[in-house]
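User: We ran a pulldown and think these components assemble together. Before we commit to crystallization trials, I'd like a predicted model of the whole complex to look at. Sequences follow.
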Amino acid sequence: MSSVPAEASRAADRAAAANAAMLEVRDLTVTYALERGTVTAVDRVSLDVEPREFVGIVGESGCGKSTLLFAIANLLGGPAAITGGSVLFKGRSLVGLTDSQLAAVRWKDLSVVMQSAMNALNPVMSIGAQFKDAMRAHGTTSRQEIADRSAEVLKMVGIDPAHLKSYPHQLSGGMRQRSMIAMAMLFTPDLIIMDEPTSALDVVAQRSLMAQIKDLQEQFGFAVVFVTHDMSLVSHYSDRLMVMYAGQVAELGRTRDVFDDPLHPYSAGLLEAFPSIRGPKVRLTGIPGSPPDLSREYESCRFAPRCPQVMERCKTTPPDLYQVEGRLVRCLLHEDGRNSAVAEGAAAPAAEDVRSEP
Amino acid sequence: MTEQAAASPGPITADAAAPLLRTDRLSKHFKIGNALSRKTLHAVDEVSLTIGERQIVALAGESGSGKSTIARLLARIYTPTGGEIYFQGTPLSHMRSRGDRLRYSSDAPMVFQDPFASINPVFRISHGVLRALKLHRPELSPDERYAEARRVFEVVGLTPADQALQRYPHELSGGQRQRVGFAQALAMRPKLIIADEPVSMLDVSIRIGLLNLMAQLRDEQGVSILYITHDIASARYVADRLIVMYAGQIAEAGPVEEVLGNPRHPYTQLLVSAVPDPRAEPHIGAETDRGEPPKVIDPTPGCRFRWRCPLAIDICQTVTPELAQLAPDHDAACHVAQSGAEVRAFS
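Assistant: Here's a predicted model for the assembly, 705 residues in total across the polymer chains.
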């Protein structure tokens, strides 16, 4: 069937790409090769991100959330490597691209905001010089254009453009994170990946940064993948939420649904781990125990040793990801049929397409 | 009096009615700049606070508000620029002998923020506890020291204690290491533990366990804890009293439920409104404060919150508000609140 002209087939490809999710992560697996063996930090994770969507990824340290982000952005190095699965960004595979092919995508279409702006920014270059570097690398050479755009993005995040002359140490923690976000927006990318950008900030600065990210997103229409260990932080900002445990997806669904009615006992435990500032004071227990060792194989549910609802079967059967009312959950409690009684009795809102968040 | 003395076998204090620890206009200034521009950074300015017996007092504020400086002043790592600290009624500046200093540091030990940096990685966990016991409780024999180490490890939930003591730090999780920090403090039979952000480096799922441990130490071991934190939700969970700091000064102080339920200082209201609460309705679009706490360098009189305060009036520009009682046991340093007007700056 080679009679189809090349032109038409390329047009069809483009149409298919437009219909597909902007970012498609399929069965992504990342392994660290260490002297004492291999550690599977990310285990067959799949995630679609639509244009303009805000997806939160939460979990404890060591659950693989940062490794997943690094794998998506193709920033893995050292002992870590993608050993399975694919990452498609706007229909194009990011896995296996050469550095120069990647360089064309980075900053322009996809940018990353790192956890520690103090370490991510160059301490001996002014903010403006670092903006200039990024723009030059992508072919913008006009001084005027660079100066104008740099001032513009800095204004967008609420910093006086005079600070283009400042060095990172002259800015407060909040301002450094804001300038990282400004830098990520130099080319108005389609996707911004954020790795705990607010973890070094206190609550007041944190809330104002989150509100600002949301504002900018609504204004410019980029998608955000936001990694955090603080579930309450994304509660009001993300459309969908992915809870990770021990390298796997534990639960994935609309943020409001996960908060109102967590299906996985781990999600429920994370929610119960926050003392509230309002309402009655209740004694909380958190989640006792520690995350499992990922260097060994599991013939059981990885959360079983810490799970308050553990059953005999959990110790012998690794659960799959089950589809429950438009959500994905990795827990035997929700194996087909088991949850029907629960679902009927629950006052949860009717299930819709998980991505149809307004 | 004789009955009281018999009931409390502790050392006889200069003033029996005195709180466990009290500071009186405590200040710490740092000199910064070079020979051409000498400047003074006011990290802590005239802070007067009290910590009672069997009490958890939370000291909350943004980074740079001076809360860690207060911890270091109380632990005698810094010498105050001005003011005085009274421990059981005795001024610390009068403690000059090595014996007095050792006794105070075992009465008021510190637990640090970073459990990965505060334990020596090349020794077994038992090393730190036994060494501190040898220094601070020389009356104990080696066997008694080991028994004491076992006791405190059991109290903080590191069981079986024999095995835990033989571990190396890298074999323990962050939460377990922080429990070691509390066990080391507890081995001194302290009256007050100064805990500087003890849970902020830990995972959300295990923070609660440490907070519960702090409450347990207060209830069962009778120690007081100064809990320094920027997380006021956790302060509400565990503390009896709350002190809110802003730019080196106390903005508001009182019983934790009273201060958070009915905050009188605009800054406390801002802090309360900024806490993310997944159980509450979202309030995006609510006024978002974009300000930042000032660096207090060579300050002039006036309220230090006035640049961010929507309620600031003329007097706030020129007169520094003093901490004054607005309700029983509830103090705030705000001209507007002290004038009797209702304060509703952020909600």
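The interface with chain A takes residues 62-63, 173-175, 203-209, 211-212, 230-234, 236-237, 260, 270-272, 274-280, 282-285, 288-290, 292 of chain B (CB under 8 Å). That may be worth checking against your pulldown data before setting up trials.

User: Thanks, that helps.
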